[in-house]
User: Fold these one by one.
Assistant:
Number 1:
Amino acid sequence: MQIIKDRQIIENNWSFIEDNQALPMGNVIISLSRWQAEKPQLKQHAAPLGLRLQSSDNVADIAQDLAHFDLIELHFPVFTDGRGFSQAKLLRDRYQYTGEIRASGHFMVDQVFYMTKVGINAFDLNDEKQLPLAISLMDDFSVSYQELLFA
Amino acid sequence: MYQYNDIDQTLVDERVAQYRGQTERYLKGEIGEDEFRALRLMNGLYIQTHAPMLRVAIPYGLLASKQVRKLAEIARKYDKGYCHFSTRQNVQYNWPKLEQVPDILAELASVQMHAIQTSGNCMRNTTTDHLAGVSPDELEDPRPWCEIIRQWTTLHPEFAYLPRKFKIAVSSSATDRAATQFHDVGVHIVKNAAGETGFRILVGGGLGRTPIIGTEIKDFLEPKYLLAYLDAILRIYNLYGRRDNKYKARIKILVREEGINKIREHVEQEWLKNRDKLILKQEKIDHIKSFFQPPAYEADADQDQSFSVHQQQNPAFARWLENNVCAHKQPGYRNVMLSLKAPDSPPGDMTAEQLDVVADLADQYSFGEIRTTHRQNLVLADVKQADLFPLWQRLVDIKLATPNIGTATDMICCPGLDFCGLANAGSIGVAREINEALDDIEYVYDIGELKINMSGCMNGCAHQSVGHIGILGVDKKGSEWYQITLGGSSENEAAIGKRLGPAVAKHEITPAIRKILDVYLKQRQHEEETFLETVNRIGIDPFKEHVYANH
């Protein structure tokens, strides 16, 4: 399966593992509840870890643990739920998270422009055929009031 | 007024291109209905009873004459020759074709206009006092701050998918003419004890189904932190506002459920963490302020007193002066209100011909600028007193001189069942009927200041809950009924109207209004006591007894 990362279409090499399944080798994404329940063991995990946040999860709760994750997945339950935009903004600006922030779940290609602006740099679209379109829509606007106002 | 630079122009042009692409993909079936709905709403496009409705932004109600001419051109070319001014100081077209909307947006962009964020669950057009910059009771011109907020809210990437719509209003005068206490955020320009100018911030006000008066969240904010503070409020709202029920999703519900102290604590924490990154530099503020300098007033404009001769000789002109013209801070100048409430036309509507004449009159008499008001009228704000009489004559010709500003027939009215997909009941027809019943102009003057607001459904677009008399259309088993409230106000002494009693049938609404006004005329202590003062003094029971006497 393919995704977008840093404006390139690449093969996805991460998989989400349900809480009740043992972690396989390779890059795995886990839930926040699993992280909180198994933190001591997971900190010893040999392979790269990713963390899936639901839109209702509080980013501040994992602020101290961000160094353990190569990827944060923001899962959009429905495209109208805009909490993920603030979660991404907080991860980048407040907590200086520099790893991959990936959008997944239900979102529109027409949202990727705003998503890139708040720091999301990877996109797992439900419809892979839309990947090239999504990249082209990242250039919808060449100017930003929010950047200019504080320049 | 603010003039676009290359960046502003690029932004609106790119928005047109973006929406054109979205419309094309939708028409090809590549965007689903729900998804396109969100996208078109953020470009002001509703799907209504008969046709789509396009809401065009008029930032803080300020228009240049060339923009008004463009609105007229669009009305002719893409609509049925007219448009409708809304209570958010915006303008609406009721008959555009969905596939032509990108072309309309391109036309608007050619005169520095757009329909960005005029609907949808995002930050909406910022509104202000329609007498901003010209009112004698003002601390400073609020429009530069509105423009700063306009820029910040436009295409804000983090706050485009909020739990619900979000409206900001700014006021800088002793009398609040912008209903700031009924906005998600109200910004008051104030002076602190040390004499410094800053902002008092209110949060959680709103009309609609659950009218709530806003609460103070910050007593004094330094100007450089305005956007940092708004950013903090919006982030708290975006993260914690309810998303499970659209009727409980406005920030007013969050404030009510959590309490203002808890919300303030969250917002302050958020603000303190972020404020140094979001400081407005003085150069930026000064640059924006430079667009709102007073026009070239004539210093001796107050010397020409010829209008007072006409005033003595012409009672119709005198009446218009008394009702539709108000004081200006510059000697020899007046603010002229153009009434969009002529007895025989739907409240807030204007024809293309009227728009063209108004554009010409603005060029000739008011430095080429026109304002819209939240009570759905227009203002020519900088008219020399010597020009009042010729201007009045021209306005009479195009039926924009009905001398009823602030009176019973200056009703706020939504489009109602005739146009709106949400409405439960008609409003335009009822407004006309009330207007006809009150056609005795002497009677209307005798009643004096009165705000009647009428909405066709409980979404409350016409702010019925803050009308001195509020009328709310409701559906009862398929027929149209009307709920009356008394004593609402959106000004300094903000109040939500009290329910008079059970809803009345359509044929009973006009007689009920007559009865309410009869009670007022009988009960008022003297001619100076306004309707609202009488209601506040005697309560609603005397009105109730008279209206429901035969039930």
Number 2:
Amino acid sequence: MKKKYFLFVLISFFLIYFLLYPVFHIFIQSFFQKGKFTLDVFKLTIGNYIIRKSIINSFLLGIIVVFTTSIIGVPLAFIFDRFYFKGKTILRILFLLPMIASPFVSGIGIKQVISRFGSLNILLLKLGIIKNPISFLGSGFLGIIILQTLHLYPIMFLNISSSLNNFDISTEEASYNLGASWFQTFLKITFPLILPGYFSASSIIFIWSITDLGTPLIFEYNNLIAVRIYNNIKDINTNPTGYALVFIVLFITISLFIFTKKYIEKTSYTTGRIATLHSEKIIERKFLLYSSLFLLLFISLIPHITLLLYSFSKKWFFSILPSQYTDEYYKIVFTHRLTKTGIFNSLIYSSISTTIDILLGFFIGYILVRWKIKCKGLLDILSMIPLLIPGIVLAFGYVGLFSNTLLDPIKNPVFLIILSYSLRRLPYIVRTTYSSLLQLNENLEEASYSLGADDITTFKRIIFPIVSPGIFAGGILAFSFSLMEVSCSLILAVREKFYPISKVIYILSGRVTDGPNTACALGVFGMIITGICLFISIKIFSKKIGDFFRIG
Amino acid sequence: MKIRVFLIFFLPLFNFLYSEKNLIIISPHWEGVKIEITRSFCEWYEKNYKEKVKVEWIDQGGTSDDLKYVESLFKKNPNGIGIDIFFGGGLSPYLKLKEEGFLEKYKLPQNIIKKIPKLCGGIPNYDNEFYWYGVVLSTFGILYNKMALKFLKLPLPKTWKDLGEDYYYSYLGAADPRHSGSMHMMYEIILQAYGWEDGWKTIFSIAGNTKNFSLSASEVSRQTSIGEVALSLSIDSYALSQIEVNGRENMGFILPEGQTVINPDCIGILKGAPNIEVAKRFIDFLFSYQAQLLWIKGKGEKGGPKEYSLNRFPIMPEIYDLEFEIDANPYKIQNTIKYDFQLAANRWPILDDMIGCFIIDCHTQLKKAWSIILKTKDENLKKKFYEIPVDKKVQRFLWENWKDPVFRNKYLNEWIEFSLRKFKNIIIEGKYLM
Amino acid sequence: MEREILRVENIEKKFDGKEVLKNISFTVYENDFFFILGPSGCGKTTFLRIIAGFTQPDRGRIILNKKDITNLPPNKRNIGFVFQNYALWPHMKVKENIAYGLKIRKYTDEFVKRKVEEMLEITKLKEIKDLYPNQISGGQQQRVALARALIVDPLILLLDEPLSNLDAKLRDELRRELKRIHKETEKTMIYVTHDQKEAMTLSTNIAIMKDKEIIQIGSPYEIYTNPKNLFVASFIGEINVIKGKIVEKIKENLVKIETDEGYFFSDLYKIPNSKDIFLCFRPESITKEERINVIKGRLKEYEFLGETLKLSIITEKGNIFKLSISPYDFEKYRRGENIIFSVEKEKFIILEE
């Protein structure tokens, strides 16, 4: 028993120190100066026009992206839920594809297409549709919206799909039966019932969008909170406004999270999950359906296609497609010092962090389900806290907290990078373990004990082998997420030899000559790995994959 | 259970997996420079000192970002920040670093110093107290996309002022001087070339035509090559790289007539450098014939870089005795302006903030006002457009107090409010006129 | 004298303040097939888990083989456990499941292999040793669970309702199997069930549990013939009950009892506290009509079971009695429309209210 409490305290302390303490530090730095409570830092921050503008822009971006993803994701989910058509299963997986490359990566290629003398404009000019080239990129804001939308709508799709999956269609039929029209039914019955799912998806998308650092950096768009925070890392010791901004972000995420959670609790009308089998209508206008689905798919894959093209293009100047192709960038990826370092580092970081995730997440899940000790709830809360802390906040907190210590990211960020990777994905592993352990009959363990096996043997030989497939799938997802993680990587990796892939991509994309091409090749490499990981975990998880993109 | 506890404690050890001693350089130089210089230096070092060395590069973005970063670190650790060398970013950062006492003195052997001319175009090539040295020389000009200009039927600009002509509206690229040192140089050059008042007018006109301000100079040059903009302010090296990639038939670079400045791109050892011996040797190396040649030779050429052409002008005049594809010798450029580098260094931070507040942070409004002025061609509005709330005479007072955050913030807020009000009025009046 | 192997003393347990076990004590001797019999929810599984060490008692001691094991973790107790749901590990083959305990004890591979073969022989599982648990039938799973627990030669073997998940035919078959295995292995077994038939056929001793407590312990015969109270009496086999009152003590050990079916005479060795009693008799404790203790009633239902005939009769007063007779005797009891029988005075069971 004592041993158990010791372990419990140890893990809790670890999580408090590396999760809550940085947040606490941010709080202190933004509200206290020389030990006294003050709002000066906030006045200074809010008083600055351009920071105000950035905050407003971020909000605007979040709202617009939620809106655009809804427009695409919700109808898509309805089509997949209500209609039967051939190839549905495959199409469903294909619509997850846009998630395999973050807009941070695909943004490098897309500029080539939508710039003023890029492929799209040249095509339109050649076709005589326009006389003068159109600026699609605008100030970069539009580009960010487009890429985030194309990247994030699958999350909306997944969430609404699972809401509809748990949705009892007879409630709709009852409404029709009472004489309501389709529209009335949607408004009064369907919409309120899927609202919690919609709300949760919207929160995730909103938070994702405003804390996304990579995309605005690639589009060189400065006036967003995330970029402001990133720029503030450089003078974190001389300029406290960064802390205030981080605090604002944290405040938004936490309130949104609590609000969402409360809202979902309040509105979850369904008492139990009744898997209702409803007949899927066979759609009549097949051509329209397929062509619109494929068009959407094509559009959402344009960034990825461009990425691929750009990674092979030797010369792409004033033409729709590259005029010369080469595979030299792929050779560079695997021979160049920086890319090699990046791949090596990322593999190391991700595999260690995934291992920690699996071990720690599993262990916490196990404690939560099996151990009968007091204050278990604390661990439950602690392990879910990473959901509330966006990467950019965590990384900023680490830089602020650990500079000038043994863990100083300038000296050596390895520990902090690995830690931030694993903490960010910890809740998902804990949750996966938790639910699979709940389903695992305790007798299986007891049988082992009664045969003389101790804790470790039982764990190794019985529990782990039985629940590992689910956790393995979660681990694979965590691995692929870590491999291409952006915010923490960009902020924490300062020295070249510690760069992970995403930082290398960012640095390469800023290089004058072949940098962007090499960055694209590296991006394609990452995309392929992510794709494979996603595919494997879909195979294992099947429909439950949506759990990884949900709040609460 | 023990395994997991063990793991938690074991983790920090991963840090040491990577630990080793080497030379640490912070630099805004692009990748190619880092790779080629590292390669050559390591060979040179092994040959001369019979031991291996590793070079590690830190980058925080552009020159100003690196500078901010170094200053921020020195604030916390006044005796040394674990970085050996600051390399690149022009001249002015070094004046600032020296002034703040962040540089370490190092005198090159006399026979090498003798070979470097004291001045080029009136600007010193190295510090007379030996705190910093120019390694290469930079020129600043205009990069243009020949195809785009041809399509748009636009003429080539000849001077900085030409960039403010209305036909370039929204086809001009520029970056934020608060991040990019080379961009800052060009605004400073424009100010010095035309004088305070006309200089600002030119900068404002250019800003009116600028599509949007990027964060880095390299991004601007790439935007020019992909045709997002047709022409842009650019340092020679970026421009030459784009020309190399996309071909002379597609891209071009010009130095505005009589309005350019040749500026050394410097290096200095940082105070408390952990590997000071290696750092000194690194500087020795940079002034070797071998290293100097590296900057100008094309990739793959004998004695040249292996993977990336660097397209920079070495500071040692003896290099220009050879013949190169790029037929330029910065020492022979005659029509430079008289450039006050001390003034430039002094007002570096306030110029950044002025351009930031007057132009970049309110660029949306500025562009709108400019487009209205271009439509109405109203001289009064134009006059208003050029107004700034700072007189040339108060510059000194400003930069002397600029370190005080309260003082600075007060002005920043005043300036941005002034600018927003100004552009708003122009937009309202302009609509009335139309 | 039999050797004592397990003794539990005053075990008590509460879950969240709710008492589930109250003052449980008993002793199990070597070679016993000890049954804990009780309706579901009476705490018997909890009790078994306490013996195994999966649950800690709040009070009391457990002495196994003269050693106090109350605070020993389950893996140090050397007690076998067969779970109601078998708890076979789905990721291991049958033979791996069985070999597990030996491998834990780090025996040589050769020894393990030999022992497993032996055990497969005893439990007749040879053909399926390479299958996974989800590929075999319920009865086979049951035997694997048994084999797995037995192979490590535990001091005692605990079985938690091991047959409850099987269908009736399989249950009969496995019951016989269990008896055989008990005989062959000479293992002391403690068996928890709510099925009195299992208890009666297999046990050497039975503890009857009700509502957190043990009510009676004894051999099946003792419990059947001399139940301590109405609950035990009705839980073990069928019993007919008539409410009555002792009206007269005729002589030593003989009383006269008044019921609404008339007066009855019964042996009585221990005078109850109250005069109000239940007069009970087993369905088979009847004879054909005698002079005393006669009951008359109409046939309500009957059930022919081959060797016996079960009758259900209803008296004029509306009482229903169950009788069990040899089918050949049916006519003996029949008198016109009515069934008339009497109960011998020695065969009455008098229970207090």
Number 3:
Amino acid sequence: MAGESLTVDGVKVSYGDVQVLAGVSIDVAPGEFIALLGSSGCGKTTLLRAISGFVPVDAGRVLVADRDVTNAPPDKRGMAMVFQSYALWPHMTAAQNIGYGLRLRKVARGELNRRVEETMSLLGLDGLGDRLVTQLSGGQRQRVALGRALAVEPRTLLLDEPLSNLDARIRQTVRHEIKALQQQLQITAIHVTHDREEAMVMADRIVILDRGEIAQIGTPEDVYNRPRSSFVAAFMGADNVIPLTAKRDNGGLHVSASDDHADAVLSIADGDEGANLIGSGDGELTAHFRSEAARLIDINERPEGSLVLFGTVTQTSYPGGIYRYTIDVGDRHFLVDDLKKLGVGDAVGICLPAKSLHLYSANPTTSS
Amino acid sequence: MMTLHRSLRDERVWSFALVAPALLTVGLLFIYPLGFSAVSAFSAEEEGGWTFANFIKAFDLYSNDILFTVVIVSLSTVLIGVFAIAIGGYLTLGENLYAVAILKWLYRWPLFIPFIVAAQLMRTFLAKNGLMNNLIVGSGLLEPLQTQSFLDWRGIVITFVWKQTPFVALLVAGAMASLDRSMIESARNLGAGRLRILIEIILPQVRPTIVVALILSFVVMMSVLSVPIMINAQTPTMLTVDMAFRINAYGDYGVANALGFISYLMTGVVAWIYLRHGVRQGGSP
């Protein structure tokens, strides 16, 4: 079984008067693993359900291998879905659950048993076929749910937060197992999750949704290192924000000094070497950075190509290995980890190298 | 130590006082009459002492009616089950939202109508010149001479089914609605049609509720007097009618109690199924 391409073209979905998807378009290549990422209520599950055919679309089209399936019933789309609650049937054994789709397809008994066994050993469920699903552990149930979807050899696998009911340790393993399985079978996969790390680890490309619209589509490196908007930056962990005033010229971005920070000249570049700037860079900017990219330095130090914030330590803690400080910069608080031991009330500089900064013009329409 | 002793004793007195009204009600209104009628069924009225005479007479005179009662109530129970599952299934799986809303509003009405009123309604509906035949004749499907009265065993079954289906459907539809919706969607996703989902996915999961609801219905129908008396004024008839007749016409409490005891055995069998079911469900029937 090989995957098929999937095209979502301007799909709009409303529940009553509330518009949940406001014209979403995605192109998925055959065999690609796509993660739909977003916070609760952003429309990611609705998008998956629109793709699977459980939610009728108000406008737009869904194409599978260039075939329009917008109005096709869920079972005529070559897709199988793994549900968040697993949706296993408690009155059936693991093998009956996995073989149900094959039974519906009138596969002969011998062939059916062979394929069920094959699927079960693929998922490491050997010997559990005769158990009722209620007698299985959470991880095993999750595999049975996956097995039930895979047994019918779908071209596209839809995963609706299938790992959210597993404990953290098992989740780590299952992530890799699902990804490996998807690559081995070369099927197209659409995975809904609100877990950033899960999306990063599993997906070839991540689709970040915000209030029913796509905020950004890109590879994990893209959305992590080059978030296109303030929302995506915050969602991808760069949730420390500081306002700046700057002017851009050929030499880079000249940041003016203020009460909170020193002046600086920052290089702007694509990729790792400079700051990620969206917009013209002139005038007021919003700077985002991740706590782990910040370093504590002497307040009078001015490393070249870095922005230095003036802070005061207001709280200290020792989570192990490093010290964690709450540092006030003006009326903002940042959490910064450092190896040095500092005391409450100490004045420190927070050093932010250009490449750790994501800068967004307050008026993005002047984008160059 | 003394105080603790006294407070424990006080507590016991109080707890007994609290359950006493319930115990008295059960004892006076249920256990005493039941025991009395059982004793009376096995007692010889004139000569005194224990006897099977009442049962022998009951079987001599009413064995057809015993069979009739079992068949009528069992047939009604089966039909009620079928209709209730169909209604519950449509409410759960129906895709036409208007039809679902109308059915949901409509199906419960008979619940609020007493048996005696239901029987009276059915008399006017099912009679030879009743509303049903008038409608059929009016629509040109039958000639007036071809019509027939349904006021016989069929009338009893129709009334029981009409009256009891909403009760079972209410419980069954509730159980179906409380199932995880994604269990139905996962079956649809694999290509199962609605009938298949109802039979293979939903029914096995709501079976305990269906069994309990049908048993309760069975017991209720066994005890109804008004419906057979009003709809089926002929023999064979149901045991409740025979019991009323033995008492009203002959003052023959012995045979009436023997018939009552037989009814009790029939409901006892289904009660046993109910309890066995409850034990299997982990003691929560």
Number 4:
Amino acid sequence: MRIFQSWRYPANWTIFRLDDRLLLILVAIIVGSCSGLASVVLNRLLMVMFNWFHDLRHYWWIFVLPAIGAALSSLFLEKVVKEGAGHGVPEVIYSVSRYGGLLRFRSSFSRLISSALTIGSGGSAGPEAPVVISGAAIGSNIAKYFSLNDRQRITLVGCGAAGAISSIFNAPIAGMVFAIEVIIGEWKSVNIVPIAIASVAGTEISRILQGNQIPFSHRLFNISHMDILACVGLAVLTAAASILLTRLLRFMDKISKKLPAPLWIRAAIGGCAVGLIGLFLPEVLGKGYHEVQTMIEGAFSQGLAIVGLVTIAKIVATALTLGWGGSGGIFAPCLVIGCLAGLTYHHCLALLWPSVSWVNEGCFALLGMAGLISGMLQAPLTGIFLIVEITGGYEVILPLIIVSAISTTLCHYIEPAAYYMKELVEYGHLLRPGTDARVLSDLNVSELIEKDCIAVTQNMLLRDFISIVKKSHRNYFPVEDEETGHFMGIIHLDDIRQYLFNPVMYDTVFLGQIMNTRVEVVDPDDDLADVIRKMDANRLFSMPVVINNRFIGLISKGNLLDQYRRELMVQTSQSV
Amino acid sequence: MKMTIHEVARCLNLHVSTIERWIRQGKIPIQKTGNGYLFGESALKKWAAMYRLPFLIPEKVKSLGYEEKPENLLSAMKRGGVLHDLKGDDVETALKFAVENMPVLSKTSKKELYQLLLERERLTSTGIGKGVAIPHPRDPLSDALKSPVISTCFLEKPIDFGAVDDRPVFVMFILLSQSIKIHLHLLSRFSFCVRDNSFVEFLKTSPDEAAFFAKIADFEKQLDRADT
């Protein structure tokens, strides 16, 4: 009977208690499969919607379709499931660093539906970020179901994200690298192994249900030395495109926030604008994988001017969709924009040096994708592995690495925070493991309180106080009101040292006269980073902790260092 | 041995809420079950060693914090005895007679003590004023005493001790202790007595042992009252 009761608490089984790696791997298989399934569901949904609306494409009023989709998705997010707009990846990263990866159950499907509405109706966004948050929420809730602790839950959130990306791109390594590089931010074997397994599970689910196909297959490219040299230029172009996209997204976001209208109307306006662009340049609509495929095959037969225009249009359309409140991710638009940028670059090269036999334009399209993904996410490894896997083109690995590396670096110069991290960095919410901010956010004031202070009253004579000083171990003495016990002020030995040796003052001075009443106090719920900032600003070594006017204890830098160091040791040791 | 997480927190010298948070975050190998915590002490020790966290069993913690029981004057004085009408014309001879007549210590340690006392006198006089001197070695004796000793020596005639107030010394308290801490403790208690002028006057009458100890016991009571 006990076995049946304990199956929900696998972490307490004897075999998993001392080493939970095996447990994590087993649960990772479940999480990876579930999140893989979620991404297959979204993929199917998008396909169904694409087929529905495909026949309507030739009507003139079709431009309102993205508006309806975006408005519905916004309404659904805001009113039905009550979740914030946006793609949700920052939410996952923040939850991982602050709340041990706790995510709501409804997150596991809400973004799937809203992004299906946005993208299916023609909005320029990607299905990847929604499946990432779904996968992460699935991982988090499975961990909650099995009562796992924070560390294990974080790993499973990573597993969910990895399974989702692996499944949607049929790219297990990219999924794994994305989860570790972007979501968790910590390369440790305890994380890597379960996440790798989850990637395998996610990919396998997608292969069983959708067949094993490389999303963007291509012919073999013959890359010469000149092409590798030319990559540098491409990297600069993709970096510029990423920065343009980032800035434009933020700009659109700002404008839309100024508009005095409900969220769903804003989303509708954005969608409407996208639809209008789509009337003239239908390439910008939807996730655009079909266009990517055409371009990589080298079958996109437009001239330089058109390609350049489409590139800009796609950037604008993406900014309109996402910046105005549509729901979706940045991955797929990045791939399309990257392709277009690569193509533009190829056309430019062919125009400038017609005598050189450049490699097929598909190759540049492919490299452009890597450049844009790396630049936007500032995650070079994710860019490299993703492109290699979704194109099956290992022979382009050398120029690929160059483009990714240069693009990431250039973007980092101009936009120090990656797209996913920007909001987090702005609010000081990016708390990667092993950083000062993370240690301080983990510690809290109540753990640091030292309680061995002797309280005195304001009507006490200095003579009586001296006998208390003899017995105490501390330099600080809180002064409390005799009747109410309220905290009045504090006496620091340094302030009154000169009076201590003057016997004349012993019977003439009351403590109320020498206490310091203008003291900064700390509440146990205060953020430790703020407390330290206050200490540094006022050059304090200790601060009294006060709740409801009552003195609780002292918080001092000495004890803080002790605790800080232990926290850092436990957090960063590589052995586990 | 069964441990509670409060004991674990004490072993690691951490707040219980830190331990609870670590359990929640999975940083420490303790599992939370419905009604308690599950962990192995040896696994915990291994874990602490891996992260180089100090892990001390509470008994050890207690013995580290254990304080030496403070001695009081009376027992030390009883051990050291009271000498009356001690001969001597100057510091050296007075000390020599005093040390020779002390009821405790072996012959070799007496020699050592005498040298140490002279050495100490050369640094500065131990005459603390009002005709009282407290000769003592600067560092504890080499064959450590088990408990402190104070020998009270009333001199036959006052001698010049080079005291701070230049008054001739009529009584010496030779103070021996096994550690600096006890030395300071006894010194502070003793100085409390000497501060009282009536006590000095009482000493001038060269009282007998019983009366002297009664007086000291009186002071001790006062001191103990002030401490609590």
